[in-house]
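In this supplementary section we document a worked example of the pipeline. Step one takes a protein sequence of length 309 as its only input; no multiple sequence alignment statistics are reported here. Step two produces a three-dimensional model, which step three serialises into C-alpha cells for compact storage. The input and output of this example are shown verbatim.
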Amino acid sequence: METAPEPPAENISANKWVRRIAWVIIIIVLVLLIGLESGYLKQGSLQEKELTQLHQQVILAGGYALTVSYRNLGPRLLASGVIDHGAFAAIYENSVNPLTSAEVEILTRGSDEKIVITADNAHFLLNLFWAVGLVNKNSILTEGPMMQNSDGQVDRFASTGGWTLATKPVMELYAHVDLISLTPEQQARVEEVASAVYRPCCDNSTLFPDCNHGMAMLGWLELMASQGASLDEMFEAAKYVNAYWFPQQTLEMAIYLKADQGVDFAEADARLVVSKNFSSASGAGMVHQSLQSSGLLKQTPGQSNSCTN
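The serialised model returned by step three reads:
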C-alpha cells in the first residue's frame, strides 16, 4: 500500500522517543490501577511484580545484544552519499539526545563492537539502518513489492521520499550501492524472514519496506545474514528491535500473551511475536482492543500506528 511521504527527517526529534517511553510508563500505571481490581483476562490477576517483570522483558535494562557488528557500515554510508554527516548529526544536536562519542565513531570510523540496541540509541539505529536498507543493492528493492506497487514512482513511498539526509537525490541512491553482499543462501534467508516480520505502523511485511521502520528492519536483516546469523537469531533480533522501536504496542502484546496464553514475552516464540497476527497494525489493534474489552486497559492517549519516528 502506498503511503504519503513522512515529514522531513530534519524535523524528527528524539523527544518523540522520550514521549514514547513515557506512554509505556503510563500504560504500566493504568494496568496496575485497573488490573488489580478487575482481574486479568483468562489467567486471573497479575500482580505488580509480574507486570514489572513483563516491562523488563520488553525493554531490557542492558539492551539487546545482537550477534553482529557494525564494521565499516558508517564510513561507507557517508562515502555513498546516502548520509550527509552534518544533516544527520543536526537531528540529534537539535534534540535532547545529541550523538554520543561512540555513535560518532560508528558513523565516521566504523566499529567491530557487537551491536546492542537500547532505549537510548534506538532512534540513532533506526535512522542508521534506514539508510542501510535504502542504499543497499538488493533484489527485494529492485524486483519486489516496492517496485510492483510503485506505478513507476518509488520515490513516493515514505521510506524513500521521506529520507532527506543524503547528499544526492534519493533515486540516485535507492538500491545503488553494493554495501552488503549476500550469497544465494543468505539472500534466501533474508527473504524468508523479511516476508514474516511485520511492524505495528502498517500491514506490510519487511519484504515491502515502504516506511522507515520497514526499510531499517530490512537493513538489519541483510547485515545479520551477511555475518552468518541463523534464521532463529534473525527472528529473535526482529522481536527485540521492534520492541525498542514500538515499546507501547510491544508492552501491550506482552500483557496479552501473559494473560491470554500464560506466556512470558521473554519466552514467546519470536516468529509469533513478529507475525502479522501480532506485530502488524491490524494485529496490534486487535491486541489493544482485546485488552480494552477485557476492562484491563482504558483508552490510552497517544495510541498510534503511524510510521513516524
